[in-house]
Amino acid sequence: MIKGLLNLLNRLFVLSLFFLGLQTAAAQELVNCTYLLEDAKEAYEAGMVELVPELLLECIQTNGLSGEAKKEAYKLVINSYLFDYMSAEADSLMDGFVSEFPDYRAAGSDPQEFVTLLDAHLLALGIDPTQIPADSTETARRGLFQKFRERVITKGAGEYGNTLGFTVGVPLTLPYTLERYSLGDPTGDESHFGLLPGLMGGVEANLILRRKLEASFGLIYDMSRFTYSATPVSSVSYRYVEAQHQVLLPLSLFYKFNPENRKICYYLRGGFIPSYLIHATGKGTRTSGGSQNELDIEATEITDSRVNLNLDALLGFGIRIPLNNAFIFTEMRLSSRLTRANQDGTRYPDNDLTWLLYHVDSDFKINKISLCGGVCWDLTKE
User: Fold this and answer.
1) Over the stretch 276-313, which tens digit does the pLDDT of each residue have?
2) DSSP letter for each residue of 315-342
3) Residues with Cβ < 8 Å from 118, sequence gap 6 or more?
4) Domain boundary among 123, 149, 175
5) Exposed/middle/buried for 67, CB within 10 Å: 0-12, 13-18, 19+?
6) How far is Cα 211 from Cα 111, in angstroms, rounded to an integer?
7) Same domain flag for 143 and 171
8) Domain enclosing residue 134, as ranges
9) Domain count, the chain
10) Across the strands, what pairs with 336?
11) Structural contact between residues 169 and 218, judged by C-beta atoms closer than 8 angstroms
12) How many other CB atoms are there within 10 angstroms of residue 263's CB atom?
């Protein structure tokens, strides 16, 4: 009896080792498949799509992956087949994908070929591809951001045709002094310019020249502001604020670094901005040092003392994010005035800015940093 009990214990021990080995092998397989998935993603991004099925097919077929990881593996292999024109293999694997993930619906990041094949398989099963399952976790979180993520993108962010749209932004104006003038001694006048935010908005059109190159034309209203602080005499200081209202006609070229990317396109802009000054005003506050008494000067017309026709050099860097038939963009623009901003012959106008505020124009040019964004729609007829 004791011998039989020992034999039974030996068998149980051997079986335990066997099952432990299976669990260890399964765990090892899961870890290996996780690594293989990362390798497959890198290969896909690098354009070596022929390696993706070799890396992931066994993991899909042996359940070496699960959940979101397996879903991602399916999509990588199907997209690789489609990229290599292996439509039969992609169609066959899509059967398994739809069978295992019937609630999946096309996302904005999915290539159009994948979306078409997925929708065809869903329709074959009697499922409406546009109908989000009621019990889907995505539906519970659905909102503006979710709808944005689920938009159907058929082009790269930089692959649209000729486009037309609008832009709005905030220019920050910082002039710099060419030659200092003052009612007192210019060498002792502790004067400096300061920046203030403004407002800009208008329309722009983009014309395709080559795959990575575009020409851009715009018509923009720009309201720019800046400050000037000075101490013309030892007992008096003032702060002057100027506002300029202009029409800008930016002419530039775009270079798109990655136009085929369906998530984001980076670009560089360079060109010139002819502009016309419509209206300019100046106002300020004078402070007497001893008594700290303040004198406010209301906005005063100074358009005649400014150069009306101007030219700026333009450099910008931005990004485009695709929508269904349009793209949104955000951009930082740097511009530098090539012409002087003030008129030499009107330096001492007969107004309150000169005789009450004690302000005199120094010779200056203008630099700007503009933060802007907008939307452009594709005008290409397909």
Assistant:
1) 999 999 999 999 866 667 899 999 999 999 999 999 99
2) EEEEEEEE-SSEEEEEEEEEEEESS-SB
3) 94, 97, 98, 104, 106, 110, 129
4) 149
5) exposed
6) 19
7) no
8) 2-149
9) 2
10) 313, 367
11) no
12) 12
